[in-house]
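Re-running the complex after MR caught last week's input typo. The corrected sequence lines follow. Everything else is unchanged.
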Amino acid sequence: EPEVTQTPSHQVTQMGQEVILRCVPISNHLYFYWYRQILGQKVEFLVSFYNNEISEKSEIFDDQFSVERPDGSNFTLKIRSTKLEDSAMYFCASGRWAGGTGELFFGEGSRLTVL
Amino acid sequence: GESVGLHLPTLSVQEGDNSIINCAYSNSASDYFIWYKQESGKGPQFIIDIRSNMDKRQGQRVTVLLNKTVKHLSLQIAATQPGDSAVYFCAEKGSGSARQLTFGSGTQLTVLP
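Corrected-run output:
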């Protein structure tokens, strides 16, 4: 069964450092997303990506965040200068259909701990 | 602002009983709803979805009911099993071009032996 894979599963970093989280979406999907979940809180939308550009982004996704699809398979989330409040589980998701409808497949997440 | 919320943070049921998890949403323009299951240490897993032009949709052991009048969504799980223990989130998508989902706070379902 196809799945979304994410690396690393856990990253610990010092405040102010750059972090890159990587995702390999399902191969025939066209729509890609990043969500995050602070411990014990709800899953929050960060950004959606289609046709090599950002479709939508939330207020959380400020200038410190960027996304990229550097090749045909990877989808990355970069945080330029991490803050303590960036500590969270980051989920990548992909879907086949427009508008966020239909099943979104989530990866198992990358836990980011900022010290 | 618009929000999606759950009535109860925790729910405990006996194995074999039916479970009902509720969700209230505030965006009357929402046209698509999904229930996700999240097991500890894993990402959200799609359970079932429903469009706003429907009142009910059934899957395998699960049923989603949508009451647009009171903006309420529920997930019914029949014959709850230990493997159903997880956090359940409802999520909604507004109408228009917005592609993101707005998730609710989650309900922890615990199945008792």
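None of the earlier attempt is carried over here. The domain at 5-97+107-114 of chain A is CATH 2.60.40.10 (Immunoglobulin-like). The longest strand of chain A covers residues 43-50.
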